[in-house]
Inverse folding.
């Protein structure tokens, strides 16, 4: 009893509160953990961005990809002009399009490297892919090494489509692409620098830059938990009429 009020609750409201409240709290802490991961990722990115650029031709066979993630690199070789890979469902400024991946043959290596050449609008006709021009001859690229993108939804029956001698995919899978293209592919991708004279639209998101989003989600979950607790108390707090 609290003053003139008495706390009484039924079985079902109590069960619902007992089950839902911890879930909301857990979701809040999960989002806080995600925010921490993104913060650590962003700090690692900034640290590696300060390091000297790597001459990747000298290390392409011996390099551990994860040790090189987000490092600046220089890579000399030629673009393979035979087939391009269009990663579907990539939205930029509210417009649907593709990230275009092209094969690059480094000097002195039998491995090909997937280069993220940038973003291009999809167009209205899904039976056609946009035209993408590549430079001829030997060039030196400047870019950043990153892991294989996890974006995209894989549906087996529509995972790979051959169009105009190019390929449209829903996700990037190095193993499947190696078999499909009959190419030995490096286990990483290179994202062209914004300042590169080659490439399409490049508005790259910084890794871990969405920390604030997860903090916002955490606040929402904790606010819902607090709201549930207040409602549970108010609804079940009854005025004691026994002394009236």
């Amino acid at each position: 009893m609290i003053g003139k009020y008495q706390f009484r609750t039924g079985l079902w409201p109590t069960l619902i509160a007992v089950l839902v409240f911890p879930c909301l709290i857990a979701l809040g802490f999960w989002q806080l953990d995600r925010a921490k991961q993104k913060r650590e990722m962003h700090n690692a990115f900034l640290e590696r961005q300060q390091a000297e650029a790597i001459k990747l031709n000298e290390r392409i066979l011996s390099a551990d990809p994860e040790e090189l993630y987000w490092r600046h690199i220089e890579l000399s070789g030629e673009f393979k002009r035979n087939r391009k890979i269009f990663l579907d469902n990539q939205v930029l400024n509210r417009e649907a399009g593709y990230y275009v991946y092209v094969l690059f043959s480094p000097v002195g290596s039998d491995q090909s490297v997937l280069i993220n050449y940038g973003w291009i609008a999809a167009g209205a006709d899904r039976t056609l892919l946009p035209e993408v021009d590549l430079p001829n001859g030997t060039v030196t690229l400047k870019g950043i090494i990153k892991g294989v993108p996890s974006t995209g939804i894989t549906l087996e029956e529509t995972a790979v489509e051959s169009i105009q001698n190019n390929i449209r995919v829903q996700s990037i899978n190095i193993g499947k692409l190696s078999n499909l293209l009959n190419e030995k592919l490096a286990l990483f991708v290179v994202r062209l620098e914004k300042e590169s004279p080659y490439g399409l639209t490049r508005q790259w998101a910084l890794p871990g830059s969405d920390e604030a989003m997860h903090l916002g989600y955490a606040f929402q979950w904790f606010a819902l938990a607090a709201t549930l607790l207040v409602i549970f108390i108010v609804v079940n707090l009854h005025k004691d009429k026994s002394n009236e």
Remarks:
- Residues 5-43+210-239 form one domain.
